[in-house]
Amino acid sequence: NDAMTRPANAALPLSEGAVIPRSPEAVLGPLNPEERRNAPKALFVAGHDEWLRQGVRVAIVGSRQASPEGLKRAAKLARFLVAKDITVVSGLAEGIDHAAHTAAIEAQGRTIAVIGTPLASAYPAKHRDLQARLMQDHLVVSQFPVGYPTTRRNRGCGTVLRIERRQPRRH
Q1: Of 9, 14, 106, 135, whose Cβ has the fewest other Cβ atoms within 10 Å?
Q2: Contact of 99 with 91, CB cutoff 8 Å
């Protein structure tokens, strides 16, 4: 497997179409005025972009330092959604995001990663093989062109559905 032999910081291979900027409306379909106002100028996609215009999608996001219970809940929810033919959407961070994508893949469903880096970059680096698989067999979406500098500020993904909340410790 080529992904296994590349160093973690090596650029991910991209199809020609992944580096072509596309308008959000070209990728997502018609936007309402609020969506148009807040949409990035361009999107970059690798994988099955038609999934963005087909069926129902539900986002699963949460803590990067998820508890074992939170990881189980994310995986259970992803499997439930896949069984209902719903596409799972998440970031590609550690914790809940990783659990959601992995469970959706294992359940033979569809999953979409929305990342805060260019498509050729993997963050965290230990998720590079997962990102490569998603780009090939599922879908990865970014608003950042190849070569865009990665900073802490652009690594985030907007929260749509939170499935874990840290509870204060009882003394």
Answers
A1: 9
A2: no
| Assigned token pair, 86 | 């719903």
d(CA 34, CA 18): 26
pLDDT tens per residue, range 137-167: 999 999 998 888 776 554 444 333 333 333 4
Q: Is the pTM of this model over 0.85?
A: no
Look up residue 7 and give its two tokens.
Answer: 């160093």
The predicted-structure confidence for 96-127, as pLDDT tens digits, reads as follows: 999 999 999 999 999 999 998 899 888 888 88
Cβ atoms of 88 and 112 closer than 8 Å: yes
Report d(CA 139, CA 107) in Å as an integer.
Answer: 16
